Queue: 3 jobs
Job 1
Amino acid sequence: MDDFPKNLQIKLDSRTKDYSMRRLGTSTQLIDFSSNDYLGFSTSEEIYSRALQILKENALQYNGASGSRLLTGNHKVFTMAENYLANVNNADAALIFNSGFDANLGLLSSVPQRGDLILYDEFCHASIRDGIRMSNAKALKFEHNNLEHLTTIAERERASHNEIYVVTESVFSMDGDTPHLKAMTALCTRFKLRLIVDEAHALGVVGTGKGLIYEQGLEKHIFARVFTFGKALGCHGAAILGSHTLIEYLVNFSRSFIYTTALPPHAVASILAAYEQLSSAEGIKRVKALKNNIEMFRSSVGNNQLSERFLTSDSAIHSCIIPTNEVVKAVSEKLKTKGYDVRPILSPTVPMGQERLRICVHSYNTEAQINSLCNILKDELNEIAL
């Protein structure tokens, strides 16, 4: 069929007109300031070899899982990895999902019920928002990292709902900032709210690499933590950490867990191997190098008089605000010609006027690369006189 629905074509044409059309690219040999591979684990030969060793030791040399985990796909490496995750992260239990998107979708679509309320940070990830939309619970957003606004809503709504769930991220994927989790935990305790925290961009980055909740000693106060392994762990999949009862509930009611083929055993073995590496001397060395590079980047931003353009961040994610899709894409292309892979984030992914370069710092970036990038960025911004 050659024709295409007119209303869909109009939407595509609109994306072209406002410079927001998404297209699939290819990997590059440019200097990486774009990927989420914060520790360089995705290319670790040690992790690769250890994953193969785990598979051989457990006679799990399969190409696929062969079915959902409730049918034929629940190979013993899942239990090994989930027990390890729960133990190392000071949680009662863990459940592995195929991706972070699947984890958030499955958790938020199945747990909050009719008569419940979900309060979520307005900057939460698309997977969180989609899971909320699929829920039968009512949902209200609160202003980004604004505890006063969250308190106002909680005071107003507490008596009208059976359960209230608060959803946030420990490091936000577009801004790189963090909520005041201790104060938020105290607030949830006061109003008997159930706190859910997505740790996707804190895992392997914050503190000893185990996430912000663990670092602040808040594990026992959190209803659920979501970890994804495609960022600093350099592999694939995700896990929800919580009580044994929560995990049992998800196995029975989370549709994105139940009705999908399980991850192949080698993907789960990679998760286990990456976690082991994170706690090793090499992993500790890489986490320390990442922290040093983050501080070095922040200093270079200041030295190049770029601070006013950057959102405040102590994480590996640093956003340089460059309004309009057209201009931020042009700056990104200029950086590519100089050898640097820095991707633009366009509206509507971020609000109009908040378009940005999203710069990700890694353990393997060098001081020369960091300083050169900031110098080039300064020159480019001066040239376009923003």
Job 2
Amino acid sequence: MAKCINFSLELMRFLYRETTNIVLSPLSLEIAALSILSGVKNASFDEMRDSIFDMKISLRNINDFSSALKSIISEIKSLQDMEFKMYNFIYISSKYKLNEQYMNNVTKNLDTSLKLVNFEDTSLELYNMIDAEVSDATMGRINKVIQNVPTVSNMLLINSTTLQVNESRQSISSATSSKQLKQLFKSSYEGRTSIATTTEYDKAMDISFSVHNGQFKYYHDNEQGYTCVELSYINANLNLILILPKEGSSPRDIINQLSQNKLQSISKLMALKQLEIKIPIIKLKMNIDLAYVWQIIGIQKIFDQDEADFSGLSTNPKGLCLESIIFNSEISLNGNFKEKTVSQESSKSKSSSSSTNKKTGGKKSTTVLSVAFNRPFIYFVTCNIKEQRKVILFAGVVNNLLETN
């Protein structure tokens, strides 16, 4: 999983644009990539494995990896107070015959839908059929995907991942639609948006900020000036990690330095601190074809008809190659977080701190630090699973509030 996280961060670096948001699921990327890796051999296998996966994965043990990944996904989907859904589709030209062992592995362990179709049919019937199947399975989150890939003749991969965390009215009632916060976020659009006036901007960006008071994990990097906080959802297994660059700098500056090891180091440096955190209440979506980006990063053979070796997937693989990888992701950055308010903390510790209060003249000694995510920031949604591991479900950047709701 560590190598796949680095691969996801590399994708973020290539996808980064100052005015757009990024929504990726490293776990979904691993599922989709493994469903392809299971069908390739020789140089195609080596190139893809070296770019995305750890060296310990091989043609001999790839089924074991798939089975282990299935166990992780099943555990995540079983968690309460949240709904995690992942769909993986592979459409292959009907002129190829599928390898039965490959079919058993990806359908059983990777929950992947495989279907042979006639891509040579130029009528709209095939396109409508694929659109309908994907739309039904994803409850309308992906529509008209074929319009984005008009040249598919061999193989198409479509992946959709969503996370919905249950929210209570209490968490929403603490929201504030502060005009000042929205105006601060507006600074990131100046000179890069068609919205000319403050009035137009406020009308287009009807965004509220949720406010969370309590003890949260916190770290501030004095050298680079970025701030990192971690909020734990009511579901103890789910966490939201937010990284706020220093004012005047771009999230790109932080992303360029991030790696799986760097994220682990930041996590170890975080400590509990009394905070007031303000987060925009937003829903993030992204629909993108990643085939071109994969090739730029270095995965090229599986996209080349002459070099691709899909002999693990098909018994007649000559000319078979992957042409398009459509990824759809959707997540809301809000939910019910575990919070201990300053007043609650004071009342609980009142008896034990009475002598201290006398010495300080009864003044409150608790200092609350305010952290407002009122400018572009980076986020990660992680899930604690068995064996004391943290899995990154989503990773991305919020650059543009206008594109969120």
Job 3
Amino acid sequence: MTAPTVLRLRADDTLAQRLARSAALRAEGFALRTADVAGWLTQRARAHHFRVERIALNDLDGWFFATDTGNLHHHTGRFFSIEGIDVNHNEGAIRRWQQPMIRQPEVGILGILAKEFDGVLHFLLQAKMEPGNRNLLQLSPTVQATHSNYTGAHRGTPVKYLEYFTDPSRGTVLTDVLQSEHGSWFYRKSNRNIVMETVDDVPVDDDFCWLTLGQIGELLRYDNVVNMDARTVLASCPVTSAEPGALNTDMELRSWFTVERSRHSLTAERVPLADIEEWKRSDFTLGRDDGRYFRLVAVAVEAGNREVTGWSQPLFEPTGIGVSAFLFRHFGGVPHLLVQAKVEAGFLDTVELAPTVQCTPGNWAHLPEPLRPYFLDVVRVAGPDRVRYAAVHSEEGGRFLNAESRYLFVEADEAQAPLDPPTGFRWATPGQLNNLAQHGHYLNVQARTLLACLNAGTVRLDPTR
């Protein structure tokens, strides 16, 4: 006799409540008090030898510039390459440009292991060294690895805890989604963002610690503590939303976004790195004469606790600090964020939702005021009474050198951010963005950083403080 088919709930309706309980525990968790994390990170930095030294481009070990294209490749054909790209866009102050771009046509794993202690979800983060981080060591996901790394192309030691994210039988998936990386610097790059819950008795390596979502939220108040990869994973967690409504229905918001994707005409054609216009190569850099945007540099790295303890690699180094800010207002008592449908040359689908302002101001200073990014001045002149959150966070430290952005939530009024915003902008609630973040390629990495701050309770957008 055939056993009856058993249907299961389509979604875990308790997960948001469990995450809320974890977000509420902010001062201490199972293993470590929040106030002690800074000291623990300092201890882990002293426990290993770390060194990053700039070197000449031609001194990169295992890398070569192809004689026919000038593209920069690893001798294995794995990891990533630096190529040129030619971009044409039908809108904007700059409609055609060429630049170097990182091409890495493989999907990495950004995985955080979760486990309940005393009925509260905790997340296993590691103190990970990345050569591009200004302070080198930051809190990262349990597993942060490219496909080349976790399949052993580097011939180093195995990635710790990888089995929890490659063997589905080891736990329960809480969230799992492909998300983009920086669309201005990566060509169509995606990573798997996953949180996996286990009931196993997990041995904890010295460079790892269990923290609640609330503890992580407290640490997000500080500069350069929680790395980009941890932030993007946390942004996809389905948190509780008590919003009674929104200016735009979920369908209206998605329809507007679809229209934005459809109306932009953008081509991004790969071209030889040696042929890109306005970029010149010297012994130590490939950059522009005007000093704008970024430059290609090379570093030699020593890291005692990495799978490989020494290597060299190219990095992109921005020429200024970025600004990524959401303006917010309240409508009907509900906080709304002003999102931007932003075109970036490396996106798979041309447009993703971005913060209201996302730019490096110095790159626009040479243009007349009407051609500079909308709302930039609103953010720059905002007084302390309007700035609800501000912190400097590193971008991807494995590919970018000293790449930092100042992340903000800034309260606005009708004169600064009207109910009917300019083309390319729309009001959306945090709950709406959280729903979209559980699907791939809706929110860009900068928007996901700010959403992570909301999910972890780092910032509150109440009408009164």
